[in-house]
């Protein structure tokens, strides 16, 4: 059973026995996510990556058609961020969920996104939209091209 002490102090997970989570079992999510930590720990006992994983599991419990992930890898080390990318790809494949991802992490964008919208930081408006790898081409929006090209160098 999931207990209400997991995820973050302002988010509560439903107990498996008290709420129809829309999946066959919590064990199904644990297996899909390859959980190797105790889900009954308090939020302050979890690493940043573990908290992200549990929060995504919680969001998936109702099998949403669309998930919005705002900077999901912010503050995570590159290895954990890569694992989160793997998880996002797995979710998309296993659940058929459309994922809207907001990120400044170009490697993650290139790896996970099918399509990308570049928001111009000076105008706050959409500067360009295309498959992410196409931002590396010279015909992309100049600022978007510079952003993607510079990130490729680091």
Question: How does this model look, in words?
Answer:
- This protein has helices at residues 26-32, 48-60, 78-95, 106-112, 142-153, and strands at 66-70, 98-102, 116-119, 126-130.
- The chain is an alpha+beta fold.
- It is elongated, with a radius of gyration of 17 Å.
Structural class per helix/strand content?
alpha+beta
Q: Biggest sheet: strands side by side, in what order?
A: 1-2
Report the portion of residues in β strands. 5-15%
Largest sheet: 2 strands, parallel
What is the rounded distance between the termini?
43 Å
Tell the overall outline.
Answer: elongated
Which spans have pLDDT < 50 for at least 5 consecutive residues?
1-24
What's the rounded overall pLDDT mean? Answer: 79
């Amino acid at each position: 059973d999931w207990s209400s002490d997991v995820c973050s102090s302002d988010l509560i997970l439903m107990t498996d026995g008290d709420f129809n989570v829309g999946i066959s079992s919590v064990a199904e999510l644990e297996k899909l996510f390859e959980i190797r930590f105790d889900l009954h720990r308090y939020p302050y006992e979890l690493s940043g990556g573990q908290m992200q994983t549990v929060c995504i599991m919680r969001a998936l419990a109702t099998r949403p058609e669309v998930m919005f992930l705002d900077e999901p890898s912010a503050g995570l080390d590159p290895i954990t961020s890569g694992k989160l990318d793997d998880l996002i790809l797995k979710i998309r494949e296993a659940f058929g969920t459309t994922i809207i991802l907001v990120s400044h992490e170009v490697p993650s964008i290139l790896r996970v996104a099918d399509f990308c919208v570049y928001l111009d930081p000076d105008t706050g408006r959409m500067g360009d939209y295309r498959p992410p790898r196409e931002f590396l081409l010279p015909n992309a929006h100049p600022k978007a091209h510079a952003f993607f090209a510079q990130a490729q160098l680091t």
